[in-house]
Amino acid sequence: MVKCTSIETVHKAFITELFGPSIQTIWEASIHSVHLPRKPTQDLSDKKMKSLSAKYCSIPQQRLTYYPAVPDSIFDAPDLEAAASDAESTPKSQSKRKPGRPKKEKTTLKPNQPSILQFF
To answer: Rounded to the nearest 5°, which phi and psi values hold at 102?
Structure first.
């Protein structure tokens, strides 16, 4: 514990705690020499594990260490939801819609319906 008698003492204690005893000033420090305690790991729920396993293939190889290991039984299991949705959905025969707001259909006058333009 450091007593707050002077700012210099607190400053040195802070730098020593973060960067180690070999670094004396902030100018010698770099982000690579930071010594922080690791956050304790959490137990993930089954829902979270299933979600992560579905996304596992898209994670770059160098980032896989940040994620929990996925059991082979979950990784190799077929995706039942995707298979069911593929079977139910049929390809649409309609052409693609144009981007933007849909055009308004012009209303036509019914026979014997007076127009507002006729009143003036």
So the answer is: -65, 145
